[in-house]
Amino acid sequence: MTKTARIDWIEGFKLKGTTDNGKTVMMDTGENASAASPAQLLLQALAGCTMMDCVLIIGKARKKIDKFWVDVTAEETEGHPKIYNKIHVTYNFIGSELDDDTIKRAISLSEEKYCRVHAMLSKSSEISSSYNLNKRTVN
Fold it and tell me: Fewest beta carbons less than 10 Å away: which of 1, 109, 118, 134?
């Protein structure tokens, strides 16, 4: 299956991206940026892709997630500030039904099998991950 994307220049450093199904995202790399830069969107795509996989895998295991967020940090390569050489993904889970084995399995499947963004970035960057589990219930 072929995917397409289009980027339109708006003005200054503002860009509008459009996918083949009509979804849009704004990008901005100017000093007073009002939207994410393309590099930030790449890191957000990594977080979002792995997060969606984890939600799906954990749901299939019939475990309830009360709250979940993903943090991504990236180190720029010395001498090449536009290239990330190390990326770390931290998965943060809250849920009384969750256990370490379920979370480890979900993260592993996402990173090794399902997430296209992880697959692409791992060709050029060292990607590591960790997770935090808080078993308290969120109301």
Answer: 1
**CA distance linking residue 32 with residue 13, whole number of Å:** 10
87-135 pLDDT tens trace:
999 999 999 999 999 999 999 999 999 999 999 999 988 999 999 999 8
Q: 58 with 65: CB under 8 angstroms?
A: yes
* Euclidean distance between CA atoms 108 and 85, whole angstroms: 21
- List domains and CATH numbers for the chain: 1-35 (2.20.25), 38-134 (3.30.300.20)
Q: Is the pLDDT of residue 10 over 90?
A: no
**pTM score, two decimals?**
0.84
